[in-house]
Every structure is written in structure tokens, then in C-alpha cells.
Design brief:
By secondary structure, the protein is mainly beta. The chain has one domain. It is built from three helices and 13 strands. It has helices spanning 119-122, 128-132, 174-179, and strands spanning 2-6, 9-13, 26-34, 49-54, 71-75, 81-86, 96-103, 106-107, 109-110, 135-136, 148-152, 168-170, 187-190. The radius of gyration is 15 Å and the shape is globular.
């Protein structure tokens, strides 16, 4: 078990296990970490722990057995990280998740969603970004920490061009996620101050 501080909320979760979860309900989230808000490919940071916490599905959708953990973490390499998460292709908002990033105990900041909502800064083009319902933890209360965001885990539709280039990848497209160039859609975190 692990405890996460998401905004001002404490969440205790078990690590995500790949048991008998159908592949159709598994996806990967592409995340990159940067030294600053300029989000330059040359300023990507390796060694950042990206964690995804899967939340209980919306009422009416299949819940995960209690034995399953609901979080997983991946460390960023030179091309960011692809973190496993549960998703749904029938209803975009059936599953949602919190995403966090930390480096040697320092929490990185997520890109804001309010009052400014800038798809170019977030790293995901419209209209897919609206479908993912991106909300930084301080979206409704500016006093909350800015170190995580919540998204709907909408599985990309295979015949949709705007959804085929990240930031969510179907389970069978892990390689495409791992090899995606910095120009492909991805979620972003950044350091409040640069590393010397």
C-alpha cells in the first residue's frame, strides 16, 4: 500500500496488478516531465516517478475487485513515461484517474486548467482534450496544491485520427506510446525551479 497526497486529499492505494483485466479495459497514459514551463524537448527530465491512481468507475460501470490495486508508477526515461491505467471505449467518462509526478521527493507541478485553459501548454490538442476532461487539482479551489491532475480515461477510438496520436494509447499500442515523438500529444509536468 502507498499513500498519495492529491491536492489536499490523502489517498491510500495498492499497486495496480495485471490480473484478469481484459485488454480492452487497459490503456497507457503518455506523460513527460520538464525543467520549466517552456516544455522544450531538450529540457525533459529523466528519473521522475509518474504515478496514476485509478478512481472507482462511475455508477453503472463494472467495478474492479477489491483485491486489485489501483495505482501504478513508471519512471521517465529520455522519451517520458507510459503508465498503465484502466480505460473504457464505450463511455469516455466511465473511468477517471489522478496523475502525479515527483523527483527525489519534490512534487512537480501540473499544467493549469483554470482560469487559463491552454491545450498547447497542457500538451493535448482539441477536441480530444475536452473528451479527457483535464482538471488540475486546484481547478475549483485555488488554495489546493497544483501538483496533480484528473482526467477521464477515454480509450482512443481506432478510426479517429485526432485520438490516434496520444496521450492515451490502447494496451496493444505500448510501443507507439514509448516511441512517440515530443510533438505527439502527451501530458506535462514541470519543475517550479530548474535543476542546477
Amino acid at each position: 500500500d502507498r499513500t498519495f497526497l492529491v491536492g489536499n486529499l490523502e489517498i491510500r492505494e495498492r499497486r495496480l496488478f495485471n490480473l484478469d483485466v481484459p485488454e480492452s479495459r487497459r490503456c497507457f497514459v503518455k506523460v513527460r516531465a520538464y525543467r520549466s514551463e517552456r516544455f522544450l524537448p531538450s529540457e525533459q527530465i529523466q528519473g521522475v516517478v509518474i504515478s496514476v491512481i485509478n478512481l472507482e468507475p462511475r455508477t453503472g460501470f463494472l467495478s474492479n475487485p477489491r483485491a486489485w490495486g489501483r495505482f501504478d508508477s513508471v519512471i521517465t526515461g529520455p522519451n517520458g513515461a507510459c503508465v498503465p491505467a484502466f480505460c473504457d471505449d464505450q463511455s469516455p467518462d466511465a473511468y477517471s484517474a489522478y496523475v502525479l509526478a515527483s523527483l527525489a521527493g519534490e512534487e512537480l507541478q501540473a499544467v493549469e486548467s483554470s482560469p487559463k485553459f491552454n491545450p498547447n501548454a497542457i500538451g493535448v490538442p482539441q477536441p480530444y482534450l475536452n473528451k479527457l476532461n483535464y482538471r488540475r487539482t486546484d481547478h475549483e479551489d485555488p488554495r489546493v496544491k497544483k501538483t496533480a491532475f484528473q482526467i477521464s480515461m477515454a480509450k482512443p477510438r481506432p478510426n479517429s485520427a485526432e485520438e490516434s496520436n496520444g496521450p492515451i494509447y490502447a494496451f496493444e499500442n505500448l510501443r507507439a506510446c514509448e516511441e512517440a515523438p515530443p510533438s505527439a500529444a502527451h501530458f506535462r509536468f514541470y519543475q517550479m525551479r530548474g535543476i542546477d
